Amino acid sequence: MENDMTQLAALDFELPSRNVRPLRTRLRAVLLGCGTVNSGVLDGLAEMSGAVEVSAVVTRRPRPGKDGRTAWLTDIRDAFDTGPDLVIDGLPDCPAAEKALELAVERGIHVVSANKAVIARRPDLEVRARRKGTRFVYSAAVGGGVPVLETVIRLTSAGERIARVRGVLNGTSNFVLGLLEQGTGFDEAIAAAQAAGFAEADPSADIDGLDAAAKLALIARKAFAFAPDAASIPAQSLLSLDPGQVCGARENGLRYRQLAELTRLEDGTIDARVSLTALPEDHPLARPENEENTVEIVCESGLKVVLHGKGAGRSPTAGAVLADIRDLVEAGEV
Ligand SMILES: NC(=O)C1=CN([C@@H]2O[C@H](COP(=O)(O)OP(=O)(O)OC[C@H]3O[C@@H](n4cnc5c(N)ncnc54)[C@H](OP(=O)(O)O)[C@@H]3O)[C@@H](O)[C@H]2O)C=CC1
Ligand SMILES: N[C@@H](CCO)C(=O)O
């Protein structure tokens, strides 16, 4: 057959380039943590045409003292004393992170965070930031590079009522299940997820479904204006599965997935759960491989949106953090 592609006439239209377009404002930022996520953010900020000056980076272990205009510190309060407009939180779930976000909100500093555990546990921080008129955004906290919260927000802004959100929201558990299917042992599989930078500082959060539950709590805020307690969301641990069961299921055309689910019930209440489910291998939610996430959003109108992509790791997650930063700078709020 001849080439059957339609030739489209090109209009004179200049595509915007995010890399070269100068941003309107310049802001001072503090990076909390410089591990998997924030090391990628730091690299990305260097390419933002000088729109963001990093006044300090805080890590747990000391690093060389000063790098250009950036101070490398181990004390979070010292970093706040550099007078940031923005705090970029790439800390693990820990009391220091919770205190840092409290301090940022108290001082009227904008927050971009990837720290779903802390944000889920402390809905008051977002509420207080909103009252103060400062940004408190966390796109990277759910789905890594997959725009889950962004899509939910967009759908509700368009007047859609969300009925259900369901999918694989934890990259580590998916990665581990994939290795178990191939006969790898549990400990080895978790160690591989840690080495790849997918797992939480305490990987039991991934394995026991707590990370997925925290993500459901954040989705519920945007989908239903409701802040459930993530700790009360029932979650089934991967440890309840025998690795042989995972292998055996695969041989029979089934794939175990850690499924996170949020449903608006007829009486208006919200049901949330994280469970391990053996799905037929051609089921759309069986599709994510390795650290990928797949999420289905169903609206009462019948509209269904399926999102799929890398749910964890340096580059996709840093990309989502950088997009939040760029939105903030472009909005000219700093
Ligand atoms: N990794 C991923 O794929 C994703 C992670 N997230 C979230 O992003 C956040 C960061 O994750 P990730 O980058 O993987 O974590 P890492 O463990 O790679 O990095 C954590 C960083 O925080 C620093 N740190 C830890 N505790 C303290 C403390 N008490 N005071 C000062 N600094 C501290 C560490 O310092 P040091 O370097 O000295 O150890 C390190 O630089 C977490 O909340 C995670 O849930 C969200 C989406 C995806
Ligand atoms: N530990 C998380 C990081 C991304 O949120 C995961 O594996 O999904």
UniProtKB/TrEMBL annotation:
Q: Where is the Aspartate/homoserine dehydrogenase NAD-binding domain?
A: 33-138
Q: Which SUPFAM superfamilies match?
A: Glyceraldehyde-3-phosphate dehydrogenase-like, C-terminal domain (SSF55347), NAD(P)-binding Rossmann-fold domains (SSF51735)
As recorded in UniProt, its EC number(s) are 1.1.1.3
Give the Gene Ontology MF terms in alphabetical order: homoserine dehydrogenase activity; NADP binding
**Residues at which L-homoserine binds:** 200
Annotated residues that bind NADPH are located at: 116
Class of enzymatic activity (EC top level): oxidoreductase
Query: What NCBIfam families does this protein's entry cite?
Result: PRK06349.1
Name recorded for this polypeptide? Homoserine dehydrogenase
